[in-house]
Amino acid sequence: MHLAQLPEDVFYHILGYLDCRSLSRFSQVCKAIYSFVNRDIVWRNIAKEFLNTGISGNGTDRYPKIPLKERVSTAQNWAHGVCRKDIPLKWRKNLLPWLQMDGNILFLSQAAEIRAHRIHQEGKKTLGQPFQVFSGHNDDVCRFVLNNSYLISSGSDGTIVVHSRRSRSQTKLPGHSQEINCLDSRDELIISGSRDATVKVWTLTSSSPRGTFSTFDRVWSIAIDPSVSSFAVGTACCRTPSPLHLWNIERLEHVCTLGSNFRRGAGVLDIVFESPFQLLTCGYDTFIRLWDLRLTSRKCVMEWEEPHDSTLYCLQTDGNHMMASGSSYYGVVRLWDKRQSQCLQVVICQGPHNQSYVCQSGHCCEEGQCCSYYYELWWFWLVWALILILTACCVCHHFHSKQRFQQQRRQNEINLIAYREAHNNSQLPIYLRFLPTYLLPAYEEVGNRPATPPPPYSESTLSNGTPSENQAAVDLPETSSASNPEATQRHTYRASPKDHSPSRYRRFTGDSGIEVCDGHELWESVLEKEEEVQPEEPCEDL
Predict the structure, then answer these.
(1) Cα-flanking dihedrals φ and ψ of residue 520, to 5°?
(2) Which CATH class is domain 100-375?
């Protein structure tokens, strides 16, 4: 029997054991097998294993117009880095705007306006001026959602504006006293939450709220489930023990509280429903949590932690395995796989001959391979070598500076000690005797070699006699003693003609110094004091 003659059910069961590469090769056998393999039912099981193929966990196809084979091929190329990077819009502001896609139209908020840009299929040119601008707020736009032919936005002025994308008419719904941080809409229903700790339910046809709830805390996020039977509210978790609450839309009453033991301030900033019973949350506590209402409301089913402990502001999912989170860490968007505990790290490397390849984990190497560790990279060792060289230079400079400072300080201390010892004590201490280079010069050297010559002396005539030209004699008697009668001696000082002056004289003192006397009267007073000691032997010369 020919393979093509098998029943389709049996043929589908056989093809279910093949992977995408084997199916692609099998489709090249003949035209009949090619047309059979290209059916979406053959690729559905394979599409569930890839990320962002449009097939949700319950089997719902989000993009039925695109063949599954093309979506699997695109997902595989994207996983291997075979993709094209374009910059459709350059944003000059520091903060990222609120973005939302609807087909080939990109909506983004800027200040009090919402702009709509068309993205071309080529995507090679930067977007120009918007083809449509939605306004109506007096302050910045906080959040906006798309609901069929309507664009609903909330602003810091506490108002909700419903824009019609077809007729370009708008309806303003005032109702909150403070800024409206969150907003969601499904079918004809609108639910808004504000910093004034209130949640209000609206309809597209009414100008007043259908119901108002008090959450006793600031409201950060709101999400309506796909069945439009309930909605979840995320608060700031400052006044309540849990930031997650579930409300019923029909009865307008509180159903339950999700989770417990939350830290204070662990507010929920975004909520996404994957099904009427499963929802994802993220917020200030840097965790992505998956909740299943069919199991328990006290504890989440799974959780993923942001690697850099950054606040997670927004979250999106494909309904199957992929999640995308936006953090406050320089506007980083991270991709997650629910089947893994760590975030996906896809690095596109440029290999030889301008061929790109992907490193699922690690870093790019020059040889066209992925390096798992930093020490396998050449620039890693270069950076460390430069760091070590600079560190060694800094250490050497600091060491020499410290040695020079200590030497100067030691020299100053030694000079100070030597100066004090030379003036206060005639005998040097032991620790200075071995430092001849740091001692002051001897007194004999200074006395024998004076820096300046002594002042000149001239001859003078005294009142009781005139000395000769060659010498001048001064007899100074000593005090007599009874025990030593022959103790009287005569001390004479003979000076050269240079030592005589009419107004200045000098004589030896008891401490072997020289005393200079000015004038005859001062010299006579000195002599009179000496005569009082020995009056019986007056000076003959005087």
Answers:
(1) -70, -35
(2) mainly beta
- pLDDT of res. 162: 92
Q: Which amino acid is it at 174?
A: P
Kind of pairing, strands 312-317 and 322-327?
Answer: antiparallel
Domain with CATH 1.20.1280.50 in the chain: 3-79
List every span in the chain annotated with CATH 2.130.10.10.
Answer: 100-375
DSSP character at residue 454: P
CATH pick for 3-79 out of 1.20.1280.50, 3.40.50.2300, 3.30.200.20, 1.10.10.10: 1.20.1280.50
Residue 439 makes CB contacts below 8 A (sequence gap 6+) with: 418, 428, 432
The neighbour count for residue 9, using CB atoms within 10 Å, is 8
Q: Taking 90 as the threshold, does the pLDDT of residue 521 lie above it?
A: no
Beta-strand ranges (E) seen in 8-131 are 99-102, 105-110, 113-118
**Which tens digits make up the pLDDT trace of 96-153?**
678 888 888 889 888 889 999 888 766 556 667 888 899 889 888 989 999 888 999 9
- pLDDT for 292 equals 92
Sequence-ordered alpha helix ranges (H) in 227-360: none
Stated pTM of the model: 0.61
pLDDT exceeds 50 at position 220? yes
Give the C-alpha separation, 319 to 522, whole Å.
Answer: 122
| Cβ contact 205:166 at 8 Å | no
CA dihedral 279, 284, 285, 287 (to 10 degrees): 40
Closest CA to 110 of 137, 147, 149: 137
- The contacts of residue 464 (CB under 8 Å, 6+ apart) are 539, 541, 542
Residue 170's alpha-carbon distances to 151, 165, 480, in angstroms, are 9, 9, 135
Give the number of other CB atoms < 10 A from CB of residue 391.
10
Residue type, 367: E
Across all residues in the chain, what is the average pLDDT? 75
Residue 428 or 61, more confident:
61
* Amino acid letter, 139: D
Q: What is the DSSP letter of 385?
A: H
What pLDDT is stored for residue 443 in this prediction?
Answer: 59
Q: CA angle, 262 as apex, 257 and 263 as ends, to 5°?
A: 145
Is 199:248 a contact under the CB 8 Å cutoff?
no
Residues in the chain: 542
Q: At how many degrees (to 10) do helices 8-15 and 40-49 cross?
A: 30
Query: What are 490's strand-pairing partners?
Result: 477
Q: Which residues contact 257 (CB under 8 A, 6 or more apart)?
A: 242, 244, 245, 246, 297
Helix axes 40-49, 68-79, angle to 10 degrees: 30
Q: What is the pLDDT of residue 431?
A: 54
